[in-house]
Design the sequence.
């Protein structure tokens, strides 16, 4: 097992169980306790885990919702790849919603400059990053501004979302469970995500593989209310298979080369990465009815 794979395993175990023990990890992975301690120290420096006596706990259990600028660096490459893959699902024109979060921010960074879109977001950092693109019209949802993550919540945001009818919503999540659906530890954030789902004709969830089979207090969407999940190629095959068997289309991103990691998409007009998912819940753009009613 390579170092990156080992650390990803540690993060998944911590999020699944709520804590990890140094001795147990060393025995399971087959490395020394010193190696595990070095990994835990690195993960703490990256604001993913917090060291405790004999092990570590997820940073969410100390600070339940990390801020946009504090997202885990360990999955940065995977999140960029997810953002680029999700960009293939952007309509040529129309209105989209972009949720707050480090993975959805990578979608925003991958929007091609030739797209003429209206973008609505509850994340000021995402809105600020997009306003310089001349063909985009950017709207920020109002509401109470949470410091971590930097996003708007509460009744003003919910009232505005209740009056919207958007083409595609791109939403982040903290947990994905084949039994319970998509969830987050914060009820205020969950309410906004739930309203985003209801306001959109199509719903795309973006999440890296560490979110697989995690479940938190507040479920904002069952599996059947989401049209496609975009995750990275590191997602465990059996978990992807379980989600697909439940009827949820799952799109896997490809690994990015070194030259692609920090670049904004610059595709020719009309060209997508690999096209839209072949799902009756997610028709091709030519089949989309602009006047269709929002999902109930």
Sequence:
């Amino acid at each position: 097992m390579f170092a990156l794979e080992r650390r990803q395993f540690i993060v998944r175990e911590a999020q699944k169980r709520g804590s990890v023990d140094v001795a147990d990890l060393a025995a399971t992975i087959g490395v020394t306790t010193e190696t595990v301690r070095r990994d835990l120290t690195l993960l703490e420096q990256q604001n993913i885990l917090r060291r405790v006596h004999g092990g570590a706990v997820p940073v969410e259990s100390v600070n339940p919702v990390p801020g946009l600028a504090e997202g885990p660096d360990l999955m940065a490459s995977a999140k960029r790849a997810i953002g680029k893959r999700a960009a293939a699902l952007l309509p040529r024109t129309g209105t989209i919603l972009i949720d707050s979060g480090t993975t959805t921010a990578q979608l925003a960074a991958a929007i091609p400059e030739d797209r003429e879109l209206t973008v609505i977001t509850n994340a000021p950092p995402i809105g600020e990053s997009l306003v310089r693109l001349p063909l985009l019209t950017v709207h920020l949802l109002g509401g109470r501004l949470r410091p971590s993550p930097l996003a708007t919540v509460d009744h003003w945001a919910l009232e505005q979302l209740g009056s919207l009818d958007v083409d595609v919503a791109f939403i982040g999540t903290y947990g994905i469970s084949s039994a319970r659906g998509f969830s987050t530890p914060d009820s205020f954030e969950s309410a906004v995500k739930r309203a985003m789902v209801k306001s959109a004709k199509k719903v795309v969830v973006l999440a890296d593989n560490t979110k697989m089979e995690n479940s938190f207090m507040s479920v904002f969407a069952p599996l059947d209310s989401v049209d496609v999940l975009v995750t990275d190629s590191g997602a465990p095959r059996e978990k992807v298979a379980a989600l697909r068997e439940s009827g949820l289309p799952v799109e896997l991103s490809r690994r990015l080369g070194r030259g692609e990691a920090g670049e904004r998409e610059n595709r020719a007009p009309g060209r997508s990465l690999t096209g839209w998912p072949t799902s009756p819940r997610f028709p091709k753009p030519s089949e989309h009815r602009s006047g269709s009613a929002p999902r109930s």
Notes: Confidence is low (pLDDT under 50) at residues 63-73, 261-276, 278-296. The chain has two domains: 3-62, 73-282. The longest helix spans residues 3-17.
